[in-house]
Amino acid sequence: MSYKESSVLITGASQGIGRSIAITFAAMTRRPLLLLARNKKNLEQTKLLCQEAGAEQVELLVCDATSEEAVSRLRIPAGFPEPGILINNAGSYLYKTLLETTDDEFRNQMNVNLFAAVNIVKRFLPGLLEMDRAKIINMSSVGALRGLADSGAYSASKHALLGYTRSLRDELKKTDIGVTAINLGQTHSSSWDESDMSPEKLINPTDVASLIVTMSEFSARTVIEEVTLQPQHGRVPAI
Predict the structure, then answer these.
(1) Which of 15, 205, 196 is nearest to 92 (CA)?
(2) pTM over the 0.85 mark
């Protein structure tokens, strides 16, 4: 299968930034969509919104991406195009100092923010290598570029994801698979549901999605290795 005919797989597509990415692909392209998350009800809502935006082919993969075993068992529905674009968006933000963070909480941050992406890439990379070209986009964070005193476990997990992404990029340079890390600043999503922060002070998730769609349409000769997005007026208090 060619890249042009392939689908796009989006993890964490049940809400927030992942949902915005899916809807934007539906509105701006004709690509088939594979939406992956644990919450089937919310995934079905995202599917409906994508269809309303113009998507003709949408399939759901209900799966816990932090489970290597569960991801290894994933099967694409018969007749549905294999993914040529992986968008590892699934993530979790823990607002807690390192002193207050339990071992289980720290492990959960690593599982969601690192191993979900590792598992998805491991499952689908053999198929990507068989295509004429492909793309892997990992949603990292500005917390991967510096320490965060109020969310150290989150920052550490995103440091790990960025290191993984940079290594994957280096490993795949001689192939036709482009690898990108998006170091995302504070973006309006469900993580802010308990905050009274105005969305106007945060990155618009549709802007993030539009950038990803644009990157997906680059020629095979070009890749953005890393890009950093920030709110126009800088970082705001998390709570």
Answers:
(1) 15
(2) yes
